[in-house]
Design goal:
This is LysR family transcriptional regulator. The protein is built from 11 helices and 14 strands. The protein is of the alpha/beta class.
Amino acid sequence: MQVFTAVVDAGSFVRAAERLEQSTTAVSRQLAELEAHLGVRLLQRTTRTMSLTEVGRVYYAQCVSLLAELAETEAAVSSVSQIASGVLRVNAPVSFAIRHLAPLLPRFRTLQPQVGIELAVNDRVVDLVDEGYDLALRISRQPLASTLIARRLAPIRVVVCASPDYLARHGTPAAPHELGRHQCLGYSYTDRGTSWEFAGPPPHSVEVNGFLRANNGDVLVEAAIAGAGLIAQPTFLVGDALRDGRLVRVLADHALPDYTAWAVYPSRRFLSAKVRSFVDFLAAAWGDTPPWDAGL
């Protein structure tokens, strides 16, 4: 259609070929293929003149209209990809979303007023494509699925801590091997089972036991504050309690491996402006020294 309309507009195959940056032979061949496909003659051609047939005039008018609509559609789609707008579907871990994502959303709204957010919170790993999410926030050592694009948003430190009351009653462990005689509250979704892993040197694991396991970090934090035992939890959960003294860090000389907060999304190609702007916003808000680690 583009070649045909170019020939009609230019008035000759030679000038049309120049405009299209193609050879005259290629233009002539494409027009012949179009006529063969339609089963009609669109142009009457002689060595000196060229004119539209009756059906050619009808087809030309329709082509002009269709090509204009196509150009308008492509321009609209292209502009949408450049302007952040529409509904952004996000999945995030429960406690992290409540404490550190939700407070940022009004500021993002101010920066991107045309973006709405549909936030789903749970602590399972969702399938972004099957469940229709634009992106997910994940906390792990690696971004997990190799089929996803992952961008690092912030470091996540894990520390061992307990309440002053618990430590007063049961003593403070001085080394990881002493954890075996303590109540160590476990997180159900960990990939470490009933062991706590320490970064070393050298790296090593310690088997721990406790009367409580839970699939939510806030539950473990509140139980620890109440004196139930020791916990190994990220600073984004225990930071406030450490700062105000409700919890006390132990084994500070024996670091646990760090995790990372990731933004993961299905593809970098044709990444929408709403996803790109949200990920950039979170990376700037948290960074290498996230606010939840202030003063620790």
